[in-house]
Amino acid sequence: MKILVATEKPFAAAAVNGIKEIAAASGHEVALLEKYTEKEQLLAAVADADAMIVRSDKVTAEVIAAAPKLKIVVRAGAGYDNLDLAACTERGIVAMNTPGQNANAVAELALALMIFMSRNQFNPGTGSEISGKRLGIQAYGNVGRLVAEKAKALGLSVTAFDPFVPAERMQEDGVVPAESLEKMYSECDFISLHIPATPQTIASIGYDLISRMPKGGCLLNTARKEVINEAELVKVLEDRPDIKYVADVAPACQQELSEKFGRQVFATPKKMGAETAEANINAGIAAARQIAAYFSAGCTKFQLNK
Questions:
Q1: 162-170 average pLDDT score
Q2: Is 97 among the domain residues?
Q3: Are 126 and 133 within 8 A, CB to CB?
Q4: Are residues 85 and 125 in the same domain?
Q5: E strands along 62-162, which residues?
Q6: Which of 60, 105, 267, 290 is the S-S candidate for 276 at Cβ 3.0 to 4.6 Å?
Q7: Which of 28, 29, 79 is closest to 58 using CA atoms?
């Protein structure tokens, strides 16, 4: 089988070598499409691929239509809104992600951004310490659990809201289950978002929730920009100049936010959550292993479009 690794932002060399080794050991070949700049390049490369590994590259219905042999596509990372799951399902293509492989990198970044904003983005002036503050985590998955673990080690008290995780599971980790999302926002100095972009979550974080935060509250988004209602975010920041917003996923209105609110807001120049050598390698190798397991044993453990 031919495995296409299509990455506009290439994997680290160690990840590529690992992918090739796993493929060769399983009797497959690897084709690389790195740093491509035109959609046509991806459409041509996928024409004879049986499997595909991508990072943030968009696997649209058009890409799928151009890949008559494609049987499986794996997104090397947790988020998968760049995959057209409906188009994959229609064609009988298995779509997967690699949950947990980038989790530590994202969790470390969330804590770093928390400190960065507390210290006035490292500009002169008196900042504050995060020890003793209250952190609320929205979605207690792979990343949320690691954020909680690291935050507690730094002296924060941690609350989490996740309707899909039993309260007992959070309590085992020393995390307080939130009675409601509204209550968590109203009681926490920091809120860290780890929800996916779904029809239920897109634009779900807006004025009502953010404005509930205590004086000096800071909202951190290392998830997806689409979960923020940007118009309502602007209104909150206008009405509450004490509230801060920091993101690893720059809003569409980032220029407006920077001009109007200065150091009240910050966004990384590009998405940095998974931009570590370790996460890069882990996710790429996990994707290759999942493809090999699918072809050899029909394993669909991480299938998204069941």
A1: 97
A2: yes
A3: no
A4: no
A5: 72-75, 94-97, 134-138, 157-161
A6: 105
A7: 79
The CATH number assigned to the domain holding 19 equals 3.40.50.720
305 is a domain residue: no
Residue 60 above 90 pLDDT?
yes
User: Is 157 a member of any domain?
Assistant: yes
Identify the three-state secondary structure at position 96.
Answer: strand
Global pTM reads 0.85
User: What domain count does the chain have?
Assistant: 2
Residues 190 and 220 sit within 8 Å (Cβ to Cβ): yes
Q: Tokens in use for 106?
A: 């994202």
CA-closest candidate to residue 31, choices 52, 4, 66, 63: 4
Total Cβ atoms within 10 A of residue 236: 21
- Sheet containing strand 134-138, edge to edge, reads 176-177, 157-161, 134-138, 190-193, 218-221, 244-247, 265-267
Pairing between β-strand 176-177 and β-strand 244-247 as defined by DSSP bridges: unpaired
Whether 96 and 108 share a structural domain = no
Domain that holds residue 44: 2-101+275-297
Same domain, 20 and 109: no
pLDDT of residue 209: 98
pLDDT at 270 over 90: no
Q: Which pLDDT band, with edges at 50, 70 and 90, does 244 fall under?
A: very high
The per-residue b/e assignment along 275-303, b for 16 or more CB within 10 angstroms, e otherwise, is bbeebbbbbbbbbbbbbbbbbeeebbebb
Q: How far apart are CA 187 and CA 189, in angstroms?
A: 7
DSSP per-residue letters across 19-77: HHHHHHHTT-EEEEEES--SHHHHHHHGGG-SEEEESS--B-HHHHHT-TT--EEEESS
- Whether 304 is covered by a domain: the verdict is no
Same domain? For 110 and 182 the reply is yes
